[in-house]
Each structure stands twice: as structure tokens, then as C-alpha cells.
Design a protein that fits this description.
Family: Belongs to the glycosyl hydrolase 28 family.
GO molecular function: polygalacturonase activity
Number of helices: 2
InterPro entries: Glyco_hydro_28 (IPR000743), PbH1 (IPR006626), Pectin_lyas_fold (IPR012334), Pectin_lyase_fold/virulence (IPR011050)
Pfam family, one: Glyco_hydro_28
Keywords: Cell wall, Cell wall biogenesis/degradation, Glycosidase, Hydrolase, Secreted
Radius of gyration: 22 Å
Number of strands: 28
Helix content: under 10%
Strand content: over 45%
Structural class: mainly beta
Order of helices and strands: HEEHEEEEEEEEEEEEEEEEEEEEEEEEEE
């Protein structure tokens, strides 16, 4: 992980530069001059992964799960053959890849653990369908397929991870006291220099893709699919991780398309299509004691359709002290979104006891730039910030969010405990 103090100073410098750019842009606008906002959050903080993963280019040895006894008919459990194939690939001292060919493979809880012996990356080529068993008693932890303690990992292909969540969503904790934490489809834990590309995550029991305690992760061109009413099926969930890029991905699910919680730093989301779902969320934050800060979040060129929220920051009341800073939401299209722009520092779900104490999560340096489309609710911009620590340096530039229901009046904005600055077009009008 990058040094926390150094990263924090870097984010502060970048935020200061962006403030200057914002001011210059607004000044130029007033004088009728052309202008451009510079995305200063991207740059040295987001390192690139340069693996060339074209088939056969690296002359890796292929370990086919069929050769280790896996059954492609989808009826016989192939967990142990998969484990044997992975151990052989990971333990090989040369370049290696694990091949999951066409067919359907039934798997219960499985761990692909490193470190691996050969040069990185270890490649997992997924062509077929992995189908999860549905007996929840077979899952001792909160994941179905876990990749752990690996430096240099590429998971690619047109295959599908089918969690068969419909069989177990009734056990979810949202409305059930006798519940269990349902496992995620794919989890990265302590993975560095990892790539997830091309696959489909279908009907996860819990979170689809869970990234935690990771460094330098790329998620590209994947599809996440679950019904809009599936509980707690976040598309991509990021925590305690640095330098994560998510791009050109489609997420249709029952919870947040992307959620970034404590310890998420330098996360860039680009060209994401979201909906149905709960939108793109920073948080929830402050639910647990001594949470790590969140900083350096960039969300650009995304489209959200029919979601419960658009771009959201949510924190729990009565939280410990922490911060969320340096966030940019730019060039985003909202189609019939219920809460297009929302900061909710009174967040509390129905399964927990709520408190009237203010949130102690400090939110600052937040930029909303070139966001347009339609809102399905009258309040298109809603800032509900902490009484104890009001939101600081919240900037709006070129916002055009129309109320979807014609004849019901124009969209409005509400602000509480927020220091807000405006530039360019503002629809709804700025808070008074």
C-alpha cells in the first residue's frame, strides 16, 4: 500500500490545483472565453498495468481443469479437481495458465491461493460457466470464489460465474433476523497487479466482485447481472484498496453498481453503464470503529438509468471521526434517476438501530462537473451534511437535471450544512 501521509498530501495538492482550475474556468465563462477543466485527480496516483495477455504470446504452460478430473456437465461437484489444477499452475516455476474450457462446472466454496512460483502474471482463462452450489451450509466464509495473496493475476475470457443467488436470497439479512452473510461471487484479497476482464458475473448470492486489501487492480469490460430486487448484490465493492480502475463495464443489479467504503483510495471509474441498481456510492462510511479514510475517487463518462440513486456519498450518524475527500464526478448522464446527486450523512438502514448524533465523517473537496439528464424525483440535488462537520468545498459546474414528470414543476435542490460553490449552468437552481 502507498504511504498514507504521502498519498494524503498528494491528494490535497491535486484538490488545490483543481480549485484553481475551477475558478479560472468560471472566470473564462463570464468573459465568453473557451475553457476546460483539467482532471487533476488522475495521473501519477493511478499506475498502469502493462500485461500483454494475447493467447500464446508468453508461451505459458496450460493446465486444463479437465485433465485434473473436472466434470463439464454441471451436475458433479468439480471443486477438488479445480483446486488440484490451480495448485499445479500456481506451483509451476515457468509461465502458466489455468484453462476452464467450455461446459458447465459445479463448484462449492473454493480458494485460489498464492503466492505462485512462476513469473507473473498467472493467467486464468475462463471460457465455460462456473455454477455455484446452492446449499448455504457449504460456505464457511463470505465468498464463493476467492483469489488470495497473489502478485500478478489475470482472469479473462467470455465465461460466466453463476452464483445461483435466487435460491438463497431469502436468507439475506435486510429483512431477516435469522440470516447469514451471503457469499460474493468473486473476491480478490491481498492481490497486487490484478486484472479481471471480459467475464460475466450472474446472480451472485451477495456482492458480485469484492476487492479488498488489494493494490493495482484493473476491472475491464465485464458484465454484472442480477434482478433489480435482489438484496445486497453490489456489483463491485472496494475496501482497503489502492489504485483500482474500473472501465467499460455494464452493471445491472439490486444494490450499488459500485460501492467504495473505508480505505478505498485512488479509484477511477470510467465508461460504466449502471441500472437497475442503487447507483454509484462512496460509502456507507462510519458504520464501524476507527475506519480508514477515503480519498481520490474519480467517476467519469458514466450512464445511469432507472437507478434509486445517481452519484451518492453516504455516512452513518454517530460515527467515529474519519474523512472522505478529493472526489470528482464528471460527464455523467442520468436517465430517470430518483436521486441524481445526493450526500446523505444521516444514512441508516432498516436492520440497525439509528441515532440522532451527527456523523463525524468529514466530507470535502467534492466536484460535480457536466452532469445532465432526468430526475424521477422533484429534488434532483440533495445535500444532507453533518451538523458537526459540514461538507466543505463542494463544487457544482454545468449541472442540467430536469424533473422527469412533466407538469409537476421544475427540479429543485436542497442543501443543509454544506459550503457550496457554483459555476456555469445550474438546473436545478443553486440552494438558497
Amino acid at each position: 500500500m502507498a504511504d498514507n501521509n504521502a498519498a494524503g498530501n498528494w491528494a490535497s495538492v491535486h484538490a488545490t490545483i483543481l480549485i484553481l482550475c475551477f475558478a479560472i474556468a468560471c472566470c473564462c465563462k463570464a468573459k465568453g472565453m473557451s475553457h476546460a477543466l483539467v482532471d487533476t485527480f488522475l495521473g501519477a496516483n493511478l499506475r498502469r498495468i502493462t500485461y500483454d495477455i494475447r493467447p500464446g504470446l508468453n508461451h505459458e504452460k496450460v493446465f486444463n481443469v479437465l485433465h485434473f478430473g473436472a466434470n463439464p456437465d454441471g451436475r458433479k461437484d468439480s471443486t477438488q479437481p479445480f483446486i488440484r489444477a490451480w495448485r499445479a499452475a500456481c506451483g509451476f516455476k515457468g509461465r502458466s495458465s489455468l484453462l476452464i474450457p467450455g461446459g458447465t462446472f459445479l463448484l462449492s466454496e473454493i480458494v485460489f491461493a498464492g503466492p505462485c512460483s512462476g513469473p507473473s502474471p498467472t493467467i486464468v482463462q475462463v471460457i465455460g460457466t462456473l455454477k455455484a452450489t446452492t446449499d448455504i451450509r457449504e460456505y464457511s466464509s463470505s465468498e464463493w470464489v476467492l483469489f488470495q495473496s497473489i502478485s500478478g493475476l489475470v482472469i479473462k475470457g467470455s465465461g460466466t460465474f453463476d452464483g445461483q443467488g435466487g435460491a438463497v436470497w431469502k436468507y439475506d439479512c435486510k429483512d431477516n433476523k435469522n440470516c447469514v452473510q451471503l457469499p460474493s461471487n468473486i473476491k480478490f484479497n491481498k492481490v497486487t497487479n490484478g486484472v479481471l476482464q471480459g467475464i460475466t458475473s450472474l446472480n451472485s448470492k451477495g456482492v458480485h466482485v469484492f476487492i479488498t486489501q488489494c493494490e493495482d487492480i484493473r476491472v475491464h469490460n465485464i458484465r454484472v447481472i442480477a434482478p433489480g430486487d435482489s438484496p445486497n448484490t453490489d456489483g463491485i465493492h472496494v475496501s482497503h484498496s489502492n489504485n483500482v480502475r474500473i472501465a467499460e463495464t455494464i452493471i445491472r443489479t439490486g444494490d450499488d453498481c459500485v460501492s467504495m467504503i473505508q480505505g478505498a483510495t485512488n479509484v477511477a471509474i470510467n465508461k460504466l453503464t449502471c441500472g437497475p441498481g442503487h447507483g454509484i456510492s462512496v460509502g456507507s462510511l462510519g458504520k464501524y470503529r476507527h475506519e480508514e479514510d477515503v480519498r481520490g475517487i474519480v467517476v467519469k463518462n458514466c450512464t445511469l438509468s432507472g437507478t434509486d440513486n445517481g452519484v451518492r456519498i453516504k455516512t452513518w450518524p454517530g460515527s467515529d471521526s474519519s474523512s472522505a475527500s478529493g472526489m470528482l464526478f464528471q460527464d455523467i448522464i442520468m436517465n430517470n434517476v430518483k436521486n441524481p446527486i445526493i450526500i446523505d450523512q444521516r444514512y441508516c438502514d432498516r436492520s440497525s438501530k439509528c441515532t440522532k448524533e451527527p456523523s463525524r465523517v468529514r466530507i470535502s473537496n467534492v466536484y460535480y462537473v457536466n452532469i445532465k439528464g432526468t430526475s424521477s424525483s422533484a429534488v434532483a440535488v440533495n445535500l444532507m451534511c453533518s451538523k458537526q462537520f459540514p461538507c466543505q468545498d463542494v463544487h457544482f459546474y454545468n449541472i442540467d437535471l430536469r424533473y422527469e414528470l412533466k407538469g409537476m414543476g421544475a427540479s429543485t435542490a436542497t442543501c443543509a450544512n454544506a459550503v457550496v460553490r457554483y459555476g456555469g449552468r445550474q438546473n436545478p437552481p443553486p440552494c438558497k
